[in-house]
Every structure is written in C-alpha cells, then in structure tokens.
Amino acid sequence: MRTKHTIKDIAEKAEVSIGTVDRVLHKRGRVSKASEEKIMAAIKELDYKPNPIAQTLKNGVIHKIGVLLPNPDLDPFWRPCEEGLQEVISEYSAFTVDVIIYYFNPFKPKSFLQLGHKAYRDGVHALFFVPLFDRETNSILEKLGNTDILLGTFNSPLSNNIDLYVGQDLVLSGKTAGRLLHMSGSDKGNFAIVHINESYENARHMREKEQGFAAYCMENGLNSPLTITLMTEEFKTKLVSFLELHKDLQGIFVTTSRAYEVAKVLDSIDNNKISLIGYDLLDQNLKYLQKGIIDFLIHQDPKMQASLGLRYVIENLLFKKVLPKEKLLPIGIVNSENAKSYVERSSV
C-alpha cells in the first residue's frame, strides 16, 4: 500500500518549516525561490496528493446551495428527485455544504419566482433548479446576472447563462416519441400532441418535445401533428370532443408525466385503437401500461438527474472540479415487457 505523505513529510524532506510548505501549496505569502524549488522537488519525490476533505474542513467556508424543486406532494413526478437530492445531501453531510430545498408549487409560476428570489436573499453560492416557467426563470436570471452564483438546471435546459444542465435532449426525446408512434401505426391518419395543465408559451420543455415530434413527422412525410392543451376542469369533455372530431387519429403523444389521464379517458370509452405514449414511471402510468392502454413510456430518470446534478455542484464548490456544461442522460424506452426492470433500477 502506498504511504500517504503529509505536509510535515514535505517540510522535513525540503528542510523548511511546515508554514513555508503551506504557503507554497496555497500560493499565499512570500517564499524564497530556493525554498520553493526544494518544496516542489519534495512534493514530486514523495508523490504527495492533497487530501480534499481536509482542505475543505480547514478552509471553514460553508457552501450554501439552493435547490428549487417542484413540491412532490402536488405532483408525484418530482418525488424521485427529492429522494435523489436527499441521498446526496446525506453522502456529503461531513463536508462544509448546506443544501436548502425550496419547494415551489409546480402549477403557480409566482410560487417559483418568489422562492427563487428568496434563495438569492438567503445568500446561496449556487442555485440548482427546474426552470418550469420561462418568464419567471428569466426574471430570476436577471436578478442573479451580476453575481458569482453558480447556476445549474435539470429536467429542462436553458439556452444561456447556465453553468450546468443535467437531463435529456428534449427535442430528440420528441423525435423518439414520433418514431415509436409511427412504428405502432401507419403512414396514414393523424397523430396528436397533448399538453396537460401547463401553459405552452411559458414552458420550454413542452415546446422542445413538440418541436422534435413535429420534426420527425415532417422528415418522414407524415401529416403535421394536431395539438391540444387540456386543463383538469374540462379534461374529459374536451378530450372526448377532440376524439370525436378526429376519428382518424391513430396516436397520441403526451408531453408530460400525466399520460395516465388520457389513458383513463380512452379506457372509459373503450377506445383501444389509438396508440398512446407519455413520460415516466408513475404508478398510474404503469397501471395503464400493463393494461395495454399506454403503449410506451419514455423514462427521464428524474432521480438520476437531480442527484447527479447536485453532486456536480457540490464537488465544484468543494474541490473545484470542472462542471460539464451539459450532461445528457439516455432516453429510456419502457414497454409492458421491460417495465419491471426499469422500476427496480429506479428504486435503488
């Protein structure tokens, strides 16, 4: 086993004081050229590697990280994200980091905006967040524009001003959905894109998925997809009317994790002719996947997005590890046959 050398060993080898070695290692204070050369030679000979844990503890700086997370009690899609964050927080509990999770209402942009501004007032050194709402995100970024706050996002990318993005290529995700529905049907008939409970104009993640789906249709000579936005209070009535109006509809792509709501309506009217694809391994989605109402689910691995992103942020602040500007995760395609393996892996 290789001996782990300390600053004291370097000082003895170079015949200088421990304080002189410390000044050279941390580039502070004046040291003679001769002493510096002896110290560097000793470091090389001993193959000295600094202990990052000891360094962070010695520095004594508490790195405050704010995480803006949609409240999982209001939308269960975000529960795995919370679990992933808590696991990383526990993993780094011995270090000088303080992670604060700000839970916002995923259906109220004002809630997101208020908590983003609160994180700024709380003096965070980094903000890791889900940019669900475009206008409010831009407002927060304007507030942070002249600061040194590290900025990272997950689930949905931003075009600029961000140090880190962890998630999927959402345009490619939309194209994947188009290919899956095309494989399930024919070159005739129509496909529909369904947005649920969100403002399309204020949600980049929905626009990019739609963009990818529409691009696949155009590139493969298919009809341009129909689009409809459904809100909870009129959901079934509006969807049934839409289906009556478009009897040649052969496939539906739901851009959120709420494909089960469309599946519930299709099941209630005994319509098993329309292929359906949506996102994520919610229990309700898995139920209709096994019943054959949902044909495919695209797994976004929200737990991995949140945990990996927070780990990147922490290690950058603690150890100065370089952040990847973009970390794209695989697009998981889940059907009734392989769903169990995805669920088991996600629960680990």
TrEMBL record:
Taken from the record, one Pfam family name reads LacI
Q: Where is the HTH lacI-type domain positioned along the sequence?
A: 6-59
Where do transmembrane segments lie in this chain?
Answer: none
Is Flavoprotein among the key words of this record?
Answer: no
Give GO terms: molecular function aspect only: DNA-binding transcription factor activity; transcription cis-regulatory region binding
Supply the InterPro entries for this chain. HTH_LacI, Lambda_DNA-bd_dom_sf, Peripla_BP_I, SBP_2_dom
Q: Which domain of life is it from?
A: Bacteria
Keywords from UniProt, A to Z, are: DNA-binding, Transcription, Transcription regulation
What name does UniProt use for this protein?
LacI family transcriptional regulator
What is the species listed in this Swiss-Prot or TrEMBL entry? Flagellimonas hymeniacidonis
